Amino acid sequence: MEIKLIKNSDKSEYSSIDDNLLLQVVDDNYQFMDYKGKKFYILNVLTNERFEIAADIKKYYIADISYIGNLEHCVLFTSVEQLTENRAAITVYRYMFYEAVCQQVYRMEVPMELFDGNKILNIFALDNNYLFIEQIGHDNTFSNIILHDIVADKQIDINNTEIGKTGIRKMLPLGGNMGVILYGTDDTDWTIGIVNVRQMTSELVLDGSNITMECLDKISGGNNEMCLKVLNDRIIYTRNDNSNQDEIVIYDYVKKVKKVRLNNYTEDENVFDCIYVIDDVPYYIRKQNDETEVINLDTQKVELKFPKGLSFKYIKDDILIVQRDKKRLLSKDMVDYIEVYKYPHMHHCIFRTKAEYNGCVINDDELFIITN
Questions:
Q1: Strand order of the sheet with strand 63-67?
Q2: Cβ-Cβ contacts under 8 Å for 121 (sequence gap 6 or more)
Q3: Could you tell me which residues come within 8 angstroms of residue 259 by beta carbon, excluding any fewer than 6 positions away?
Q4: Among 6, 186, 188, 317, which residue has the fewest nearby CB atoms (within 10 Å)?
Q5: Cβ(193)–Cβ(205) below 8 Å
Q6: pTM for the full model?
């Protein structure tokens, strides 16, 4: 894997959108209520050239946007304009970056009271033709959800489905047309399943009630800490089922193998965010008495310990990025180093640079480390 640095002098956010192309988002100098304006750029990492997306349209982070199925060379973003004292219009735009074409794909009116500084929409881009658009009320509560047909510019009623009744807690891509979905409420069962996105949209368009899925789990309501993520061909989620045992479930959706491990660290904060799969083994990485411990969840034993001054920043497959603070020679001042390791060879870093870590992006076989 080739490792490259991106100097992030303007505190940008980066994400991979295509071969050799990154999406760069920076704050702009305008604002709508508590929402800062944004500028979107396409950055070509081969030529270091960038160009701004739809500079004439004001952009705001008022929606969480997830790309699930096969989408061709596009970026979605949202804009808002106040219509009256009590009403505003939210517009969803799609920018096709190779054609340099921007089009409005959805527009809705909402009351001004919804704009409390938090995201008020969840948008799931299923493919180039369909979007799930979920409206969120105050305190992140589900309000309603629709399936929007972009080509026909119409809404498809899905109120008779379980998704239509409960909303979507999370939906993540698995590659190709496949995705994993988590839905339910504290008053109902939680359902986690794998769906063929194209088949699901076809079923909803034709029938409006049936969804075919590979159900991975049903968990009794009452567990409002349901978490879900995808790492290294694994679907990882938590389950409690109103019992005294917290469990972490790791499902290899390629090999169809499920592991269930006890969560013995419920007293720790953000346990789920610190669970990784390295060389087919699930690990929990935590801070303990100024040290960093790497705990094998198969054996529930600490395999490695690292001293104060080291923190893990990114892990994928067997590649680990850490931030290490070191003292300058003959000085009390600290110096930040970014180091990259290939597990389990933690005694030898494959890359080191003097900088402060601010994120990273993997694009094909290239690792871009973003620094301050």
A1: 63-67, 121-125, 130-136, 142-149, 154-156
A2: 62, 63, 64, 78, 90, 133, 134, 135, 136
A3: 249, 250, 251, 282, 298
A4: 186
A5: no
A6: 0.90
CB atoms within 10 A of CB 242: 9
Place of tokens 């480390």: 369
- Could you tell me the end-to-end alpha-carbon distance of the chain, in angstroms, rounded to an integer? 22
Q: What is the pLDDT of residues 24-70, one digit of tens each?
A: 999 999 999 999 999 999 998 888 889 999 999 999 999 999 999 88
Paired tokens of 45: 């990492």
Q: What is the mean pLDDT of residues 261-271?
A: 75
**Helix boundaries (H) for the chain:** 162-166, 197-206
Residue 296, token pair as written in the block: 């094998």
**Per-range mean pLDDT, top range of 95-104, 213-222, 288-297, 363-372:** 95-104
Closest CA to 304 of 256, 343, 351: 343
Confidence (pLDDT) at 244 = 64
Q: How far apart are CA 137 and CA 347, in angstroms?
A: 50
* Average pLDDT score, the chain: 88
Taking the C-alpha atoms of residue 368 and residue 108, their distance in angstroms, rounded to an integer, is 37
Alpha carbon 56 to its chain's center: 28
Among all chains, which residue has been given the structure tokens 């994993």? Answer: 180
